[in-house]
Specification:
Layout (H helix, E strand, L loop, with lengths): L1 E9 L2 E9 L16 E3 L4 E4 L3 H4 L5 E3 L3 E3 L17 H16 L3 E2 L5 E2 L2 E2 L1 H6 L5 E6 L25 E6 L3 H13 L4 E12 L2 E3 L4 E7 L2 E5 L9 E12 L4 E12 L3 H5 L8 H7 L13 H14 L7
Parallel strand pairs: 5-7, 5-12, 6-12
Antiparallel strand pairs: 1-2, 1-6, 3-11, 4-17, 8-9, 10-11, 12-16, 13-14, 14-15, 16-17
Helix pairs in contact: 2-6, 2-7
Length: 316
Amino acid sequence: MYSLNTHVRSLGTVALVSLAFAACASTGATFRSGVGDTFLEHPPWLAGADASLVGGDSARLGHLPIAFQRGASESANFDAASGAGSAVESILAEMNAYLDSLGSATALTIRLVEGGRVSAVAHRASTSPPDVQFGCLTELGLPGNDCAERGDSALGRGRQHMRLAVGRPSPEWTAWVNEVMGAQGVSRTLVLTLEVGHYLPRQRGLRGAKEVELGTGHTQSLPWLTSLETPVAVLQLTGAIVGGDGRAIRIGAEGFALRRTRLAVSALGGAELLGEEDVAESRTARRDDLPGRPLAWQVAMRHLVANLTGRRELAP
């Protein structure tokens, strides 16, 4: 289920609203979605057409507000709350303001409220947008299933691939976004989503240090006794550049915060969920490894937008 906390741009007024997306994002099949399933060993987590073909032509690029996707990698009941007053609502407001400030694309005007009620446009916007799927390889290859056995080696130093794919949007969503793009003079649109994914740790060096590669230039160390078979819950941004036909042209993902599983839980083969407190902490978590200690989520967004649009000046 999608939850959209977004800017409403109507008659020069900007407000913040919460709109629950009723459609299940996992229903979108990846067949003929525009970008085929891609299996990557290391970041950057990207697939599709070369970025120069996205931002380097005459196509004017728009962007939609960032949404939170519940149930991206597990049952929606296990995800952090995303309603009014939640940490998810707060970070989405900050992310949308930051995305607007980057100037990488034109913010598309969407009238979500008319006469005090959710508009017909908003209802159409809520019908199964493109679903960028990123995380560990899963059992049977299906989103929402448990991570498959590593298959590399007991030491966890072998080749380990992550799956990046995108599900087709619904015909209703495609028709809606095509109308919005045509009315506002853009031919391609950037669609970003905040969600939780599952990554498997890897091991490196003679001492067997454990780590998780979250995104471009971002590796997070884990306690030495962390189980290599236990996935780590990661708060991530996924994104796609789509055309007026709803098909993806280029897709990607960037993780920026994780939930460490306590050793006692990991020893039993369990993994801890990423909850409200973790999302709240991610709002202010900083990259101490970078000059100026920027916010981790801002670094992730800049990398993702730059990698998808070809706007290299945005990269940190």
